[in-house]
Amino acid sequence: MDPHTHIPTLDDIRNAAARIAPLAHVTPVLRSRSLDALAGCQLHFKCENLQRIGAFKFRGACNAVFSLDMASAARGVVTQSSGNHGAAIALACRLRDIPAHIVVPEDAPLAKVDAMRRHGAHLHRCAPGMTARDATTERVLHEVGGTLIHPFNDARVIAGQGTATLELLAQAPTLDVLITPVSGGGLLSGTAIAGQSLAPGIDVFGAEPEGAADAHDSLLAGERISGRHMHTICDGLRAELGPLTFAILRARVAGILLASDREALAAMRLIFERLKLVVEPSAALALAAVLRHKAQFAGRDVGIILSGGNLDLGKLSFAE
């Protein structure tokens, strides 16, 4: 199986769930009557901000790292990340006692870079943007060897991310809509495969910043758009779809809904106030999209995956 072309199945996601069960948290689902009233629908928040390393990314990273055979694992892992995936790979590799080499753009949040270092990863800095990230990743692979675990264009990662939806639908079986943030598309792809396999007819949406709308525009155009410079405070949503995730999302999602950075910050504040949870703007964007597009969700049971809670607290502000 080529992990960069194979489309995961429900069996792959179930196998991932069994593989990561000893290591990953089963995260809670929270409700808020006041947020239900504000949104005009029933909201079920899957709290992946409470996952290990503070984000859903640990699921995919853990599945990918622990699926490696012994010989491959001994050579270590190479990946690229602006933060949460890198921290997840670093932790998974530390748990397996193998090297982790992570390509990190210079504009990555300090809190997320510190998390990678804390778990013992070797960091390789590069200029912002996917072109620089990809080129540096190729160079590091040539220099150090190891197995490439792409942050989203990888079947092992997608299957791991889909385990959050397995849990969510067991915890909230009445859901008829799922919505997650979308960046490279790994979480949304895993969500769509798991959700539609377990609950045929369920609608799956992505939420994306207005300043990083490549997934929205790619699906609208029917071809993958790449090479854009992203302008958003949602640092976890600045990647672009890969060939594998584009193919999955094009076949499965009902749409990509846009929201502004200001709306993301307002939603983040609501989550702080009503759910008493720390989430990052990238995670809050899914609620922001629901609140902007209320008519699409009126009266429905909506599952929102809160993707992460890793904030640079030194920059925390709700100022306009």
Oligomer: single chain
Strand order, sheet with most strands: 1-2-10-7-8-9
> Structurally, how many domains make up the residues?
2
Number of extended strands: 10
The major beta sheet can be summarized as:
6 strands, mixed
In what range is the share of β-strand residues? 15-25%
What general form does the structure show?
A: globular
Helix-strand pattern: HEHEHHEHEHEHEHEHEHHEHHE
Estimated structural class: alpha/beta
Please identify, by name, the CATH architecture of the largest domain.
3-Layer(aba) Sandwich
> Using only CA atoms, what is the Rg?
18 Å
Summarize this structure as a short list of keywords or feature phrases.
10 strands; 4-stranded parallel β-sheet; 320 residues; 2 domains; 6-stranded mixed β-sheet; globular; alpha/beta; single chain
What does this entry look like structurally?
45% of the residues lie in helices and 15% in strands. With 320 residues, the protein is an alpha/beta fold. It folds into two domains: 10-55 and 161-315, Rossmann fold; 58-148, Rossmann fold (3-Layer(aba) Sandwich). The strands form two sheets. The chain has a six-stranded mixed sheet with strand order 1-2-10-7-8-9, with helices on both faces. Strands 5-4-3-6 form a four-stranded parallel sheet, sandwiched between helices.
